[in-house]
Fold each of these.
Amino acid sequence: MINGIDRGQTPCDGARTIDLASWVGSGVAQLGAPREFVAELHQRHLPQPGTTVLAVLDPQQRVAASASFAGRPHATDGWHHRNAILGELRRIIPHDLRLPAPVRTAVLLRCREGGPDWTEQDGAWMWALRDASALHGLRCGSYLTLTPAGWHTIGDGLSGRTPHSGSWAQAPVHTVAELPPRVAREAEPDQWPPPGAVPVAAAQAGTGPAGPGQIARLGQVSRLAPGRQLGQLTPAGPLSPLNPAARRTAAR
């Protein structure tokens, strides 16, 4: 890779890989239910060709964490893929290097074009998965491919027709228009004063439970007249500008 652009294979490519016979004899932890596992990962990530899905399984073979990323399509040296896998593992789940023996398993699903059989690039990804799993304290699990023919577990011959590398285009797209319509809330009748509240006039007169000169409930606000805002002063009565007595009273 030069300046962030994949220029294809380099002279050192092809040094770190593993063939199919060595992969089968390495004691890879096999999946108990690969069909359900592939369906779950596909539903989570909807991988397209060129996408690699990494999953970490707990001791009960349930998905504890997963991530999808795009690798270098032309690289056949597992060192490049190992770094990418290790970076994703460090991002999604803590390592288990302090444990005496690995209890969790790393599994890789690679969505690509072509046939389901083993290729040289698959060998580089297998080497990368095995090395990254050891560096993160995990067991090396299965390596699966997702091609136009369906999914295939390399090494044990298990396969299925669905999902396949084009299934991502058939998945339903969830948009805002598909959300259920918002149900209008029924207007509740205004209840004023609230139950148990004591009118201010009654509290000032001493007839309420709050005592003389006290407000019945702290923070009680009397209802404003329509069209008025909080902070406006409400006159005690209408003042006529033509009434001289009213003007003298207001001027005092």
Note: The chain is about 25% helix and 15% strand.
Amino acid sequence: MDHGRSDGHDHGAHAHGAHEHAAHEHAAHDHDHPAHDHDHPAHDHDDPAAMYAAALVAHRQTKDEVFRHSQQSPIPHDYRHDFAGLSYYPPDLRFRLEGLRRRPYEGEEPVRFAIPTSDGRLRPAERAGVLDFELDGQALRLTGYRFEGDEDDDSLFVPFMDATSGVETYGAGRYLELEPEDDGSYTLDFNLAYNPFCVYDPRFSCPITPPENRLPVRIEAGERMPEALASSSG
């Protein structure tokens, strides 16, 4: 999958260990997957939270190196030498939800539609299914999407907004890329939520989060707004 390019989709830096695709943001006309490395952060039977946090921190450090040095980095070349790393919420297993089953989309909107992008384009897509989950006792759901031309029928692009959007996180929402587990279930891990590449460079064309994926809760996990951008936006 590929969600953004500096020419169409935004596949960002393809680096081993960086679990994101900036796939759905073409850099002006292409998919920009930042590294779709689907190894989940490791767990340890003695202290799963500590092992998960350590693996996630290592994953984030790898992504920082990709953004700092890769030719596919979404950071404009003239600014890479000053790049201090991405901003994140601390790892939190409360925001990793396992064993979710995809159900067919049954809402009022059409299954096939065109999703608007940050540069005024329309991208053919479909509502590929819905994931229901519970967070802090509240029943929630997110729709997963698939873009025209995506070859993997089971992978899901899940953009979302939440109560941190526009304050601590990017106002137009963040992205998740999901692949099914061996048993066909999905893991919704908000610790892996990432910013669209158009946050760093407007040349990227990034899908805009549909209204149905606006969560009424705070998702204090994953990437935050870059500090420089957050401070400049007031």
Note: The chain has a mean pLDDT of 83.
Amino acid sequence: MKSLLIILVLISTSTFAGAQQSRAPQPRLTRSQIKEAERRLADLGYWTGAVDGLLNPATRSAIVAFQKWEGRTITGKLTSDELDAIRNSAAPKARETGYEHVEVDVDRQVLLLVDGNDGIRVLPISTGSGKEFLEEGEPSIAYTPRGRFLVYEKVNGWDGPVGSMYYSNYISGGVAIHGFPSVPRTPGSHGCVRVPIFAAREVSQRLPVGTIVLVYDKVSFVSGKPWVENPKLKEAALLASMSAGFDDYNYPTNPANKTKAFVIKKVRPRITRAD
């Protein structure tokens, strides 16, 4: 009996020690290790901001984008395990190459800025939640349309009825790529493509009117190359997008900042104006 009690005590002690060890926090990384992670992430194409060894919003955003692309648990934290994964990872690849465009990967919830030399910059995003909501009393669905689009209208600075959209780049009706104070790690917008607010201004600078935007998921993809190969097709598509946009929106000038403010006139089924 005494031997049995000793065995039980040893087992309990070992189990408790193992549990304590599994809950023990990983050691904090040094500034040089953080800088190493930033440099590696930047080399891979993730938008890190300055490589300075500081865990600022841009660095955490790059970590989130990396975790999304790699299918890892999304924490936004840099641990020794994440550092090892970053060291051993490969660079993200755009679905299409050979021309300048933007890709919105709805499944991974990331945006890729693709330049003419196939270089990329990757940001975490949040697209339409898929939930129902009311817009001016009319039912709508928070849906981000898939397909091939063009940036047809831009607004610098803040816009939207509640001033929640920062540097908006409209691609379909009222759906825009824009900065937002909050970018959830899962789909959570009213249909727009939210990007981190610290990057919104530079993103907008890289998206002039006419920029091709490909929005896709695992079951849908439309190539932008026909527009590259035949500029007249692209021009016609841009004119059609602009015409549709003006059908749905007024563009009164805001006398305070001389920028155009969008005022909704009607809501398209299943596509909201913005978020």
Note: The first strand starts at residue 101 and ends at 105.
